[in-house]
Design a protein that fits this description.
The chain is an alpha/beta fold and 380 residues long. Helix content is 41%, strand content 17%. The strands form 2 sheets. The protein has an 8-stranded mixed sheet with strand order 3-4-2-1-5-6-7-8, sandwiched between helices. The longest helix has 18 residues, at 348-365. It is globular.
Length: 380
């Protein structure tokens, strides 16, 4: 990652993530990757974290830090209730950033962008990264949260100096809806460490290539309900592993467990990170992402970086990523999903052919250093 020594060293604030370091969602991974790499290039980066507990439970809380890999961490006041945490934390973060000594204030996700106008009128340059059209997500269909997110979208269009989007589909949405041009900069992925089966065998009885994996947030738009319905009709001895925590969606998790209650080969691991996450990705037979809605699916990039054969829904945000290096099925179609799963379970030659190609393809196509380079060009 080369950058001229004559480039101005910037003071940057990041707003919109829950917390870094954390795997609570895709936004957190993006902010961590951007901020730590920018610090290595000599820029000063401050990340405004929420106070409160990890979205999957306080048992996953990490140590409270003032600094992480050279990135300054400021924790801001947060009302830790459903629909209010993102709103209140972004309000207080925006106030602090507006009064701070920053060249760039970078907002992530639509909801936090509702406060973008404040640092803007205080003379800061403001960037918005739209990770997805968040008001379309099921948990935001009603109440004040949905209105706040839609407000954030409109504020970003009106006040942001530049807008970054993660998919061509979202880029088209902003052009068609608001006649607003945006910069398409997809997420990156790093070459991972492949791990042998160890912890996942002890905890869940899993062996290499004996399970189908879903790994992500357990929310309706991820389509896990279709996956369980399809799996319950499969003829296979491979297990189904659902790895991830709920995100203000405990009722939905209960519905999924009810669907799975008569099938002992369906395993819910809860939220995973670290070595367990590496082992799950490293040893899966296939990885499935049956989403109805995505921004840019980081879990899909990660699964491919580990060399997995992937099966995804045919939404644009997935097909843009995988090109011809993955199997796809019709969105929301349980029967088509079941048929594709059955074919893959019965023919490991197809699975192995995809596995040989995916890691090199995805790590070459999506590179975090390139993402940082393009983002800094926009900053400067």
């Amino acid at each position: 990652m080369n950058q001229s020594n004559n480039s101005k060293k910037l003071k940057i604030a990041m707003i919109g993530q829950k917390r870094i370091p954390s795997r609570e969602g895709g936004v957190e991974i993006v902010v961590e990757e951007l901020s730590t790499r920018m610090v290595k290039l000599g820029h000063q980066v401050t990340c405004y974290n929420r106070k409160g507990h990890h979205v999957s439970g306080e048992e996953f809380d990490s140590q409270k830090l003032n600094e992480y890999k050279g990135v300054k961490i400021k924790s801001v006041l947060t009302i830790n209730k459903k629909g209010l945490a993102a709103m209140t934390s972004s309000v207080f973060a925006a106030i602090h950033a507006a009064l701070g000594n920053y060249d760039i204030v970078h907002f992530h996700a639509e909801g936090p962008c509702a406060m973008l106008w404040l640092p803007k009128i205080c003379g800061k340059k403001c960037i918005a990264t739209i990770h997805g059209i968040d008001w379309q997500r099921e948990k935001w269909q009603n109440g004040i949260g949905s209105k706040y997110i839609k407000l954030g979208e409109k504020i970003a269009v009106k006040y942001a100096d530049e807008i970054i989007v993660l998919s061509e589909n979202v880029q088209k949405y902003f052009l068609d809806t608001y006649n607003r041009t945006t910069h398409f900069i997809p997420n990156g992925v790093s070459k991972p460490q492949i791990r042998d089966v160890n912890i996942i065998n002890k905890q869940f009885g899993l062996k290499k290539d004996d399970y189908i994996l879903f790994l992500g947030r357990i929310v309706p738009e991820k389509g896990v309900q279709y996956l369980i319905d399809a799996y319950n009709q499969l003829r296979t001895d491979k297990k189904l592993v659902i790895a991830g925590g709920s995100s203000d969606t405990d009722d939905f998790m209960d519905e999924l467990k009810l669907k799975a209650k008569d099938n002992q080969n369906i395993i819910f691991t809860g939220f995973v990170q670290g070595k367990i996450l590496d082992e799950l990705y490293s040893n899966a037979y296939i990885y499935v992402l049956p989403s109805d809605l995505e921004g840019m699916p980081l879990s899909l990039l990660e699964a491919m970086s580990y060399g997995n054969c992937c099966l995804t829904s045919d939404i644009d945000e997935c097909t843009e990523v995988v090109e011809d290096k993955s199997v796809v099925f019709k969105k929301s179609n349980v029967e088509d999903l079941k048929e594709k799963l059955q074919i893959l379970c019965e023919d490991n030659r197809i699975v192995n052919a995809y596995k040989e190609e995916t890691s090199e393809f995805i790590c070459h196509k999506y590179n975090w250093d390139e993402v940082v380079k393009k983002t800094l060009v926009i900053y400067e």
